[in-house]
Amino acid sequence: MSNILGAEMFTKAETQSRGKIIAYWTAASLLAAAMTLSGIGQLMQLGGNVELVTSIGFPLYVMTILGIWKVLGAVAIVMPGFPRMKEWAHAGIFFLMTGAALSHMFANDYGDGSFHVIHPLAYAALNIVAWALRPKNRKL
């Protein structure tokens, strides 16, 4: 009987860790895709990126800097190994997204339904989820 209980407990523990891994990769993949697409959009000055940056008083060259860092951060999060670089990438994305939200707030540029504040904060929250769920092999 103890073997059966032990097998059930092992199966349950295995399922929980597998679910956590799936949740991690879902959050990390969504975050990496969002950062990559946003970074490419900024590098190519697509869509409303120019108006978004200039409306709060930033020069256009900031888009190049932010675009490069977003793409590099996305690559660092999904590539294997380099746990310290992953920590820095998560920290950078958090500061980038909260800084974007604060920049729009300070410039009174909230957008429709406060989109310019809520959108980057949602990415910051997704970043926190991905960081918190990361597997042991991706931690320092």
Question: Which helices and strands occur, and which strands form pairs?
Answer:
Blueprint: H1 2-43, H2 49-54, H3 61-78, H4 83-106, H5 115-133
Helix pairs in contact: 1-3, 1-5, 3-4, 4-5
Could you walk me through the main structural features you see in this protein, from its secondary elements to its overall organization?
The radius of gyration is 19 Å and the shape is globular. The chain has helices at residues 2-43, 49-54, 61-78, 83-106, 115-133. The protein has 5 helices and no strands. With 140 residues, the chain is an all-alpha fold. It starts with a helix and ends in a 7-residue tail after the last helix. Helix 1 runs antiparallel to helix 5 (115-133), helix 3 packs antiparallel against helix 4 and helix 4 packs antiparallel against helix 5 (115-133). The chain is 78% helix and 0% strand. It has one domain (2-138).
Main structural class: mainly alpha
What's the helical proportion of residues? over 70%
Number of helices: 5
Q: What form results from the Cα inertia axes?
A: globular
Our count of domains comes out at 1
Main beta-sheet annotation: none
Unreliable segments of 5+ consecutive residues: 9-14
Distance between the termini: 40 Å
Our Rg estimate from Cα atoms comes to 19 Å
The count of strands amounts to 0
Mean pLDDT, as a whole number? 90
- Note the beta-strand portion: under 5%
